[in-house]
Design brief:
heterodimer, A: mainly alpha, MetI-like fold, about 70% helix, B: mainly alpha, globular
Chain lengths: ~300, ~325
Amino acid sequence: MRDQKRNGFWIALAAPGIIWLVLLFIVPFYAVLAIAMGKLDQLFESPVAVWNPLQWSSSNVIDVARDLVGSASFAGPIVIRTVLYVAIGSLLCLLIGYPAAYFVARFAGRRKGLFLILLIAPFWISYMMRMLAWVDLLQTNGYANKALGWFGISPVNWLGGKPATVILGLVYGYIPYLILVLYAGLDRIDPALIEAGRDLGLGRVRTFVRITLPLSRQPILTGLLITVLPMIGDYYTNQLLSGAASTSMIGNLIQGQLGTPGLEGQGAVLSLLLLLVLLIPMIYYVVATNRSSRVAS
Amino acid sequence: MTAPSVSAAQPPGSSVPAAAQAQPRSRRLLGRNPWRHPWFLEGFTWLYLVWSLVPIIIAVLFSFNKGKSQAAWQGFSWRWYFKDPVNSVLHDPALHAAVIQTVRLSVLTTIIAVPLGVAFALGINRWRGYTSSTFNFVMILSFVIPELIFGVAMFFVFTVLFTGVHLGTIAETLGLVTWNVSWPAIIVQARLVTLGRHYEEASADLGANRFQTMRRVLLPLLAPAIFASAVLVFSGVIDDFVIVDLLSSNAGNTPMSVIIYSTQHGGNGGPALNALGTIMLVMSFIIAIIGFIGYRFLTRGERGSRIAALTTIAGSEG
């Protein structure tokens, strides 16, 4: 009785948040499902949500399946391109980010504060401003081409649908997240372990390979997830830096279908499919960060 | 056939492992200090920082360009901020409205999301049960779900189900609150875990009731976490793009990030957009500085370092 009363106080505190989550997080996803499994209003070309699972229709799912696989599929190449761009982009993030995070966590010494401010600065600069900066640099008469001109290389149309430009944008956009996760993980490694490795006669490289690298496996995984998840849903980076259909990604496909009459149901199916694919990495991320924060406290 | 050739390729006898072992030792004896400063790594880090920050500095410079170009410097002016009677941020109605809309959304979202998230964190943390852990999981899920997928769900719920909420400021605020409420919920819970229950128990032993304990003991102890999450929510809304892009309906309720994107993408870019981006940057930096100083002030007397304050304000629990 007393216990229940005590619980009642906390339930009352949590209730507004729970109601909010139900109405504006769980219900919206049911709405997406109802539209994905719904019908099309032939007259207005607007999606009709079907709330009762017994009356669900599979027409949108069949349409999407036809787009994804089959002889006339146009979405299949987009999916492959997305996977490719994200894989290359996140790998580059790791290759660039790890040495920087490693240096700041282990060797920055008294200048750690300065380095951290500089590493964190991009968090405080709007993503759009950071993309705009590259739009400026990469214009045909921009500084990138001027710099190439010094070496006698003729101007390149960087913003005209180049995959390399899109990947550059993705790396530039999401690398700060990876670096901060890596830094936090590497900073947590007990220096005594590294000293012990040295004392036992390991060289610098082997200390790194035998001690630091195995201990940073967890931050590498969570850091990669934190860059991969938003990269997959990104549609604006490649719109700003390329805008060409030849570089469009799954995000562009979904975003484009949202505004197109008649295709909104397929957009709902695609975004649910994407959610389904990403659910496992998302849950892994939640479990992994939960575990590491429990270890830390 | 292959076996003889393999053995022929190897030098005979047990000298192979011996040579492999001797090599690193002799290199170490040559006097390379294993504790020397890693100049290569430091150089690499500086290169990364230059690559990461110099483009922004150039973009800020172009907001002061005299001419219309975003790529060639033509002299300094305030033209794109307020001097130009038509195209400056001050005088172009769309740009002007975007600044106001960003501030409006940031304030509204912070005011709603922070109390909601803090109450949720307190309740969920103390109320042990199946329901509470389920909703805690849902909350964390809302933290990691890709923004586009969440934005699609918001778009559909406001266009198909809650049609009374038209796309615009209210839809944007509801979406942003849901997207950002996990900051206070997660950060305050982390703080509650580190605090433990001793303070509350002491307060109860001294005769305080639950409300007094909450007001006099818990909330002051949670103040740094609440403050940090407010800073993160506010700056998160300034920076947000996907949700507001999908939920805005006309120029009157389109914030800065969306204006920069749609104008540049539409081929009408110009230094006025750089000016808008610079205004966003200055706003964020002011919030960051307030956040850092405020967090240091609230955690004075604790063992936490400047560096801990820095990483907390950037949203990392590290």
